[in-house]
Amino acid sequence: MRVSVEKDAESLSRKRRPTREVKAKQIAYMFVLPAFLFFLVIVAYPLVSVIWDSFHDKNLLNTGDGRFVGLANYVEVIRSEYFVQAFVNTGIWTIVSVAGEYILGIVAALALAQRIRGRAIFRGIIIIPWIVPVVVAGLTWTWMLTPDYGVLNSWLVKLGLLDEPYYFLGEPDTALLSIIIVNIWRSFPFYTITLLAALQSIPRDIYEAAALDGIGPVGRFFKITLPQLKSVSIVLIMIHIIWTAINFDFIWVMTEGGPVHSSETLPIMIYRFAMQELNIGLASALASLMLAFMIIGFMMYYLYIQRKSGNRGGM
Amino acid sequence: MVESKRSKLVQKLLTYVVLVAFSLFCLFPFLWMVITALKPTDEVRSTRPSFFIENPTFDNFLHVFWNTGFLTYFKNSLFVGVAATALSLLISVLSAYALSRFMRFRGVKLVSVTMILSQMVPPVLLLIPLYIIMMQLGFLNTHISLLVAYTTFTIPLCTFMLTSFFSSIPIELEEAAEMDGCSKIGLICRVILPISIPGLVSTSLFAFVNAWNEFMFGYVFINDDSLRTLTPGLSLFKGLYTTDWGSIMSASVMSVLPVVILFLYLQKYLVEGVTAGAVKG
């Protein structure tokens, strides 16, 4: 008798628990549904259609008949006059920007991590460039760099570094480099904030122990600080490599990829294919190529992490 | 400590030198922007630019304010920014609640992964297909197109920020409310949201600043000058008033101002939000 009562109670609770769980599940799914629908309609579907369009003859004027053309779009993109240059430019733009941003970011973070007066004010000032819209940053620097009335040109001439004002954004050899400097100026604060948070979480006694061992400030930086910042730095750099490589705004606002395509990167080229030549097939092929580069990059990064953790497991 | 007083002093001095140098580097462009905006045209177009303004004037500001599309652009940006923030907050509150409480379900986990992925999808890649979709739906040249595009990128961001806020709310609080027969929606409105007001404020400001600063979609989707938002509007100023840098800079000052004011207000949250997001990766 007693046993059966216990059994009843058990089956009852087993029954009740699933229904409660099912209800919770329903609510949970209902709550994430809007966000998921947005994802499907605005991220997943467009991504699939980019890849689909890249194999078809499609353009905005409807002269393309939408037929399957295989890899023809890809071949045309790669053979197009400025592809190699845009590809190389994207590499230079990304690597130099990210390297510069990281160096400035870590120096500022180290300085801000010192215990000194006025730290909060300095931190506030250093974050400011990052808040400004890219367009405003681009316009302000364009104005400072103008040859006739630009303040930077006038300073450089006064200091004797230049004989006469130089049209930094209008000359093929300096256009991209100038935009890189502006990009570094606007983006490095993000590194500073992130690295500062990481620096402040390094236990102080490690430093004190190292100081007791007679290791100087420089040695401590290379032996303690850098290794401690490694994982944050890798994430930071990975994110920024992507953000920089795909950036459209800076270059478009300052030079539109000119003069003579000297500062054109792949995103600018996508825009040109799509909005100026109205050739959706070509633009999609280039976009798909960029996507492929990104995925390859991610996979290499993933394999690297895997191999490292594998090694650690083996030890 | 073991270090000598002298080396400590040197270190401190070096720190100040570095910080002052960085501050100058960061602030100078703003300073120059404001100085240019306040200069009359003949001083702007001087071959010897100086910090000193001989005849400071608000003419540039007045000109931009009354004689250009600035005010229209500003209103449009404000509208799109507020609407996009509201919409993404509405959706994110629900999904963030699910993410903070129901991660044990596979579907919820899937949504969280898709959100991380969608944060990594470059906007440039979505530009063309979204342009075509908007064209087919007849949304091109309307604010709806921008609303949709901005919401896509702010939903994941807002969801992650709100999830971390919601996770810190003890679950006992909810259980008590549930005992009283509160529905889930009622629970969110009456218990969760009032507690997380600081989180909601910082999340919505973050979303707003994101929408306010966006350039590419606004530039491509909107052709009608009366619907244009601020950032593309500003970039077109450069073409329209090529040499009138006084006007361009005063328009810049006026469009940065709201963001800077917001920033001063939310600096603490912003720093926390950024670091939480970035360190978690």
Automatic annotation (TrEMBL), chain A:
For this protein, the record's PROSITE patterns field holds:
ABC_TM1 (PS50928)
Q: Which Gene3D superfamilies does the record match to this protein?
A: MetI-like
Q: Which GO terms describe its cellular component?
A: plasma membrane
Which SUPFAM superfamilies has this protein been placed in? MetI-like
* Residue ranges annotated for the ABC transmembrane type-1 domain, each copy included: 87-301
Which Pfam families does the record associate with it?
BPD_transp_1 (PF00528)
Keywords, A to Z, come to: Cell membrane, Membrane, Sugar transport, Transmembrane, Transmembrane helix, Transport
Q: Where in the cell is it found?
A: Cell membrane
Q: Where are the transmembrane segments?
A: 27-52, 92-113, 125-146, 232-254, 280-305
- GO biological processes: transmembrane transport
Q: How does it sit in the membrane?
A: Multi-pass membrane protein
Q: Is rRNA processing among this UniProt entry's keywords?
A: no
Q: Which residues form a coiled coil?
A: none
Q: Does the entry feature the keyword Cell membrane, yes or no?
A: yes
The similarity comment for this entry is: Belongs to the binding-protein-dependent transport system permease family.
Annotated protein name in UniProt: Multiple sugar transport system permease protein
From TrEMBL, chain B:
Bilayer topology annotation: Multi-pass membrane protein
For this protein, the record's SUPFAM superfamilies field holds: MetI-like (SSF161098)
Q: Which CDD domains match?
A: TM_PBP2 (cd06261)
Q: Which PANTHER family match?
A: INNER MEMBRANE ABC TRANSPORTER PERMEASE PROTEIN YCJP, MALTOSE TRANSPORT SYSTEM PERMEASE-RELATED
Which residue ranges does UniProt annotate as crossing the membrane? 13-35, 78-98, 110-132, 144-166, 187-209, 245-266
Write out the GO cellular component annotations. plasma membrane
Record Gene3D superfamilies: MetI-like
Supply the source organism for this entry.
Terribacillus halophilus
Q: Which GO annotations describe the biological process of this protein? A: transmembrane transport
Q: What protein am I looking at?
A: Multiple sugar transport system permease protein/raffinose/stachyose/melibiose transport system permease protein
